[in-house]
Design a protein that fits this description.
- The radius of gyration is 26 Å and the shape is globular.
- It has one helix spanning about 1-35; strands at about 45-55, 55-70, 70-80, 85, 90, 100-105, 115-120, 125-130, 135-145, 160, 170, 180-185, 185-190, 195-200, 205-215, 220-225, 230-235, 265-275, 275-280, 285-290, 310, 320-330.
- With about 325 residues, it is mainly β.
- It has a 9-stranded antiparallel sheet with strand order 4-3-2-1-9-8-7-6-5, with no helix packed on it. Strands 10, 12, 13, 15, 18, 19, 20 and 22 form an 8-stranded antiparallel sheet that branches.
- The longest helix is centred in the first third of the chain and has 32 residues, at about 1-35.
- It folds into 2 domains: about 45-145, Quinohemoprotein amine dehydrogenase alpha subunit, domain 2 (Lipocalin, Beta Barrel); about 160-330, Exo-inulinase, domain 1 (Jelly Rolls, Sandwich), CATH 2.60.120.
- The chain is built from 1 helix and 22 strands.
- The relative contact order is 0.15.
Length: about 325
């Protein structure tokens, strides 16, 4: 009798557990197929540092993917040049890891949309797109490092990046192009715009002070670690945005326009710790402790976890510097 009751009880427990498992599986499947139940963040979400190979050349790019609403993936993309542009929809198959999205051209010399197709393999993206000639080119991407810092930094000694006499410590970005940068009367000037200039030394976390001036309608920029451009442009009196003076190009907008008229000396003070940046222009805090999400167009590379140089954009307009001093973290 006892054994029969024990067997009967075991059968009932088994059936109850099986029913519970069935209900859980059915509920999970129902939620998975219900377009109005918010899905968990897919594996594709996050920030990605790209390397695009076009023939013998390679250039950096960047992408961020976010879940919008119930199950729509959207994002932002930075190409070889230009600024961050929105991705309205990204098709992603969570089972196969395959994804696809398209973008309209920005500064690319083409009239058709740019198609990106790839596959997520662990923490790596691999795929292909096309260049302006319609030729297939390939990309590979890794997750962007967080660059979070712990504890308080100690600052080292100040370093004069520009000695006021010559170009010691600097080199042109493109060795196959003329270097229009010269030193005249103690000023660093790109007398003939056409080439960027960068420091031979690289830096990680630092404080940078730059004093500069430019003629009317001129345009330049300072790339932090060679990857994140702080815009320099004649924007006096204009409505400010991330593409104008003091902004981290295409990513972060200043809170006010603190610029002076063309021809006047101006001062930028920039503190960069990991991804967190604070920028002062002419004594006004215009960006305070904001996170730079990724590289900007025209970056040297997408290796965000590595130290990089200070790069000054010289292929747009004339700009003069009388002071460039950096204080690296020790």
């Amino acid at each position: 009798m006892y054994e029969s009751m024990k067997f009967f009880f075991s059968i009932r427990c088994f059936n109850a557990i099986a029913a519970l498992v069935f209900i859980c599986i059915s509920s999970a499947r129902a939620q998975e197929n219900d377009p109005f139940v918010k899905m968990d963040d897919p594996a594709l979400t996050g920030r990605w540092d790209w390397k695009v190979t076009d023939g013998d050349a390679q250039y950096p790019s960047w992408m961020e993917v976010e879940l919008s609403g119930y199950r729509t993936l959207v994002g932002s993309y930075v190409g070889q040049f230009g600024s961050a542009r929105p991705i309205g929809n990204i098709d992603f198959n969570a089972k196969t890891g395959e994804f696809r999205f398209t973008l309209p051209p920005q500064w690319e010399k083409r009239t058709t949309r740019i198609v990106f197709e790839g596959k997520l393999e662990g923490d790596t993206l691999r795929g292909e797109t096309s260049n302006a000639d319609g030729e297939t080119i390939h990309f590979i991407a890794q997750r962007s490092p967080s660059l979070e810092r712990e504890g308080r930094l100690k600052w080292g000694k100040k370093i004069k990046l520009f000695n006021g006499k010559n170009l010691d410590g600097w080199k042109p970005r493109h060795t196959d192009l003329p270097n229009g940068w010269v030193v005249k009367k103690g000023l660093l000037i790109n007398a003939e715009p056409g080439n960027d200039i960068l420091t031979e030394q690289t830096f990680e976390d630092f404080k940078l002070e730059a004093q500069f001036r430019y003629p009317e309608e001129s345009n330049s920029g300072i790339y932090l670690r060679g990857r994140h451009e702080v815009q320099i442009e004649d924007n006096y009196g204009m409505i400010i945005n991330s593409h104008r003076i003091g902004g981290v190009y295409g990513h972060l907008s200043p809170r006010i326009n603190a610029s002076r008229p063309a021809g006047k000396w101006q001062t930028l003070k920039i503190t960069l710790i990991g991804r967190v940046v604070t920028i002062e222009l002419n004594g006004e805090a215009i960006i305070e402790r904001q996170v730079i999400p990724g590289i900007t167009g025209g970056a040297l590379d997408s290796d965000e976890g590595k130290p990089g140089p200070i790069l000054i954009q010289g292929d747009h307009g004339v700009v003069e510097f009388r002071k460039l001093v950096i204080t690296p973290a020790s």
